[in-house]
Queue: 2 jobs
Job 1
Amino acid sequence: MSETIQVPTMAEMMAAGKAPEVLFWVGCSGSFDDRAKKITKAFVKLLNKAKVDFAVLGTEESCTGDPAKRAGNEMLFQMQAMTNIEVLNGYEIKKIVTACPHCFNTIKNEYPSLGGTYEVVHHTQFLKSLLEDGRLTVEGGKFKGKRITFHDPCYLGRANDVYEAPRELIQKLDAELVEMKSCKKRGLCCGAGGAQMFKEPEKGNKDVNIERTEQAIETKPEIIAAGCPFCNTMLTDGVKGKDKEGVIEVMDVAELIANAEDL
Amino acid sequence: MNYIPQILFAIVLLLGIGYFAKNINKLVRNIKLGKKVDRTDKKGERWANMARIALGQQKMVVRPIAGFLHIIVYVGFIIINIEVLEIIIDGLFGTHRVFATLGLGAAYDILIGSFEILAFLVLVSVIVFWLRRNIIKLKRFFYPEMKGWPKNDGNIILYFEMVLMILFLTMNGADFTLQQMGADHYVQAGAFPVSQFLVPLFEGLNEGTLIIIERTAWWLHIIGILVFLNYLYFSKHLHILLAFPNTWFANLEPKGQFENLESVTKEVKLMMDPDADPFAAPAEGEMEEEPEKFGASDVMDLNQVQLLNAYTCTECGRCTSECPASQTGKKLSPRKIMMDTRDRLEEVGKNIDKNGKFEDDGKQLLDDYITREELWACTTCNACVEACPVSINPLSIIMDMRRYLVMEQSAAPTELNNMMGNVENNGAPWPYNQMDRLNWKNE
């Protein structure tokens, strides 16, 4: 990566006496997972291009506690939550954007009663608003006519009723959006939620990500679009498992937009 | 005048309603074994949900065939109950078709005519339901938890409904024939668009025989309804009543929002408060509280709405057929979670009936009913919650039981313990250093 990206931290902002428009909550996946880091960078490039005044917490960010909570460890979750809330409130954060639906859901819904109330948006919602406000434009050329199917992340879709923002972005690319047989409210999980990402699945006759990948393949897509780093991993593995690498790409919606803009 | 039928009727009615009331009391008592939960906020939204989901059957039609047939049976059930009201009045006062004598005129014809058409449609729908369960063998009716009693229960309910509708039409057919014969007591009233086709069956029978047929059908019909009413408590069929309170008390928050345990908040705040003295003795006069149990290992640890959910479940299996774990052959079935909860709650209830209060029976919901393998297979995706046509939440029970396993028993799968250790030590589920969190920027 030669081009430089601008990623100011809250600490730097604070030192300069500035307050950003929005905090980008990167999340553990976005910070450490090799595949998810590409999504993080794609999103940052878009933020830079749209001249969004944002910042990240950097080393002051910590796990939201989502996997601990879904695993049943409420104690650890609340410790993580309260520590994070102290940091966020210390910086007087008002608005948060994140590319991880698990972080999105946890901060949006589960932090308020512990003292952390913020406006929280998913990166697809944020990108959509940038387009609507004319701060970002997107040319569809590169993806024109490509068959793209969108996999609804459970914690974005069913959990929070966000179905349209990612779809509208895909349509902005002049791509052909095709739906899987179970989508939106009835979208099938990728298999990673509820802390399943971190353990082997229970005994069964198939892995959930394979089942979901098969549903995606049925739509004969060129690209499976995702909006969650965990779904991305699960579907990428699924595509590999079905020997469709090189035929079908799994990409985050932010990557699609960034690619269209040659970022 | 002979009052014996009326007295007999009153006794049957009192017995039928009395026994039902007794069981409903038991049901309420059992639900109250659960923890209190405040679900009385936003009343407007709650009434609207009940109207939309229970009364309006909104979520039933997500699956159009079953939804359409169900609406017929549901509408039939409600409308035909107006006829039951007439039957009860007739039975108590020795009248016959009392509504007809109120001077309703053509309105009565329309009423009886529509009951008949509905009864016929109900009969057809119920037969289709039976075919789906027994001949077409829809997959969702054949999961392991549906073996034995649950399978028979489903069929018994359908037989009940078939018999009740046939009795109703037989009663009307015989009545209509008697009306045409000008039999005493049988007022000329009502329209019989369906049962008129039964008239040829009664041809050649004399008035006495017809009256016996009409009376027998009348008595069996009303007794059948009372038996069915009392069968509800012992079957999966309570949803016809409980769907209403269940949708009213349903969770109104976003599905992804899991409740933050207050007992934990207290402890965490104490832990994080630099001024707190961990060795402080309780203040004078203040009783040291027994620490609250985290999560649920038995039905008494669940909340009252979760227990109401268990009684409301009618085992349709939409949750299980949408569950990613079930779809891929894992042991978890959200329907089984609800059935187990109810079975255990009933067992606890019977224990109380016998002993006056709950005596430890060495059993609990965890392990004796719901296994850990089932609990750990859940992806918390909320598909089951979304699928339920009456707003039952199996996921909340799974979560409470996971909480018990992790916080009371430290019994999480090893890999999850590793993940949680990482979160605790590094602030991420993987073993990376928190100080490296921004390294991606320069990679």
Job 2
Amino acid sequence: MNFDRFYEKDVAITGIGQSEVGRPSQKTASQLTADACLEAIRDAGLNPTDIDGIACWPGDHNNAGDSFSPIGSHAAATMLGLKVNWYGGGYEGPGPLAGIINGAMAIATGLCRHVLVFRTITESSARLVSKSASALTNKTQGRDGSYMWRWYTPFNVYSAINLIAIFAQRHFHEYGTTSEQLAQIALTCRANAALNPKAVFRDPMTLGDYMSSRMISTPLRMFDCDVHCDASTAIVLSRSDIARDQPNPPIRIEAIGSALNVPYSWDQLPLTEMATRGVGEMMWARTDLTPEDVDTAQLYDGFSILTLIWLENLGFCERGEGGRFIEGGARISREGTLPINTNGGQLSGGRTHGLGYVHEACSQLWKRAGQRQLKKADIAVAAAGGGPLGGSLLLVRD
Amino acid sequence: MSAEAKFARKLPQLTAENTPFWQGGRDGHLLIYKCRSCSDLFHPPQPVCPSCQGMDVSSEPVSGRGRVVSFTINHQAWAPGLVVPFVIAIVELVEQTGLRFLSNIVNCDPDDVLIGMEVVVVFEQIEDVWLPLFEAAQ
């Protein structure tokens, strides 16, 4: 379908904030949220009274368990004393960037001018109490009646890694991708984390370390998994014409990818593409820019193979060529043609779960990334989600 | 947790729509929904055909034969008593391209499982559920 109006271009990111990234943090979820949100509002040159919209993902949703999303939009708006025209949350949407996508739509339709988007997660603290705090089987009591997981938990699928490992195995089989190639995602993230003072794991990692890390679910090892943390990340979206009067150079939302062209399911979708193909095709259909224009990509790495699948389906390499594209790691390093996950991603930086990618993209575009600052960073892609969840943003500093 | 902790599979809630799938094994059948309008088989069970939106749908026995589309050997003991390693796989049924669901491959060494391997359904009964698992076809 062809569209001739792309209203997301009327929306800009004007401020970012992030709490400490603890493993664990001594702060409560509310404290982390307040730290991130107030920093982002200040960074945007605004006062809390200027914020007239708030959004998050997944928000206050019982099915995910508290530590995955301890604070929703209701709680955050109330805690911060906001008076909003529009608010939203909820799990159903194009993955962890859904809060930004929904917030941008609210601004573009004139419901509000400045939307605070946040994501709080406290999985590190939760895992100190129960190591299986985030296990799928704990998300429902008794017999599983959930829409999707009930088709997996009876077969002892306890973690999303089992489903994503099945995708990885298929990618290895179809395209000849190898563990040594996949390792480059983890190694690149670790090398970048060394330059990020907030990253959870900063010690050097070698290919040998990766290959000898414990096998969790073939072909995925421990170092293919992201690291739980306690953190909150916040982003302020503003209407573009107002944004010009705010202190930071506006970062325009050039294009959104939010398509779901496949069944919302982990076993019925195309295993080596997931939802990412439709997301990428939609995003690039809404802009004159092309993948070659992108200076850095911040791509979901809840598990390493997801980053590789995003690379392919966002058009940074041919489908099936991801393994060869990242081989040796040079292309995706800070000095490469497409630096990825420059803050260490979730694999080494911490599982801030979604908004961390946008926070880092903006840090790079605003030249605030300190030691890890890229030489050229004017256009960035942030994408998040795995399986049927997926959303992407093309960001341009005006 | 004690080493003797008894492991129990989590069972699905039965509904009018999914009961044939979970209980077909009582009679030795794998029951899959079929659309009477376009003849497509589909899974998971639902009252509308996802291909043609036809409402005349019902379950019928299929052969129980299929091929491994992809799999993983899980090595992590996520719960007390869960015996590892074990194989989780997506199996495509021979009746129709793309007709598939997630299950376990049992009764073989996990290292012997391959993509493309021919498998056949075997049922494991727990309470009122007959789990459709798969083993290597002879």
